[in-house]
Amino acid sequence: MQRSLAGFYCSSAFLSKIYLILSFYIHLDSVALRKQLPASLNYIEFRLAVVQLQVSSVKADNLSRARTLVKEAAGQGSKMVLLPECFNSPYGTSFFSTYAEKMPGESTRVLSEVAKENEIYLVGGSIPEEEDGKLYNTCAVFGPDGEMILKHRKIHLFDIDVPGKIRFQESETLSPGDSLSVFETPFCKVGVGICYDIRFAELAQLYSRTGAQLLVYPGAFNMTTGPAHWELLQRARAVDNQVYVATASPARDESASYISWGHSTVVNPWGEVVSKAGPEAAIIYADIDLQYLAEIRKQIPITTQRRHDLYTVMSAQGGSSG
Q: Which of 18, 22, 224, 313 is the one with CA 20 to 30 A from 191?
């Protein structure tokens, strides 16, 4: 019996040593992963909130609801908040000119105030913008000091015709943007697109190659394209580029002339849905884990495996993505 107990204690001591050795190497690996992150990064993880807003025909009401919900999201620890496409107006070619504003204007002043009051980064969905007689579908981004740090005009206009289901032509009233849009935060670099922009894999790839670790797309897919492609496209962009992808839709309104699918979503770099709304108004949250992102890129190192000698994706504004 004594011999048996001695053997037990000996085995336990041996296993303890093995545990300590393994813990040491796991710690070293964790440190190495952290070193892969940008030098400017002060946070390994931060909370993102996505507001799925119920949009009405009354602009003042939409702005008031947005202010209230952004404040609620900030109160839950969110450092960045994302609003939906056309959050201040109904979505439709017949509405764009009526609700259009210059920047700065009524809606962007509210966004600036809300960002500053809550000390957050606010991705202001999109609003119809007017400049020099042209209309754009535009996303304004504000920093914690209330300053506008980026303005993204929708690059790819939503012109589709699915016989018997839906026909929509944004180009009947809107003009396209002509620039890529990425902004820096203390957390990570963020690439911005609007709705139909998500269908173009090249844009996401260029954003990723510039160092973006989060892609945000305010969007309003409909009852035809929504169930078919909304989640699929987000997961594809996330896996293709090993980034987080977040989308913000207006809440569904069955009485509207254009019915949004809803289902605002956040997807991680493994392609998993980590947070998702239903069709109704809601706020969803996701903790953006940049160490996890680095681990995914280490495990499946497609960034270093690309065949630059065989193919490349070029930006007309300079630079390329292999």
A: 224
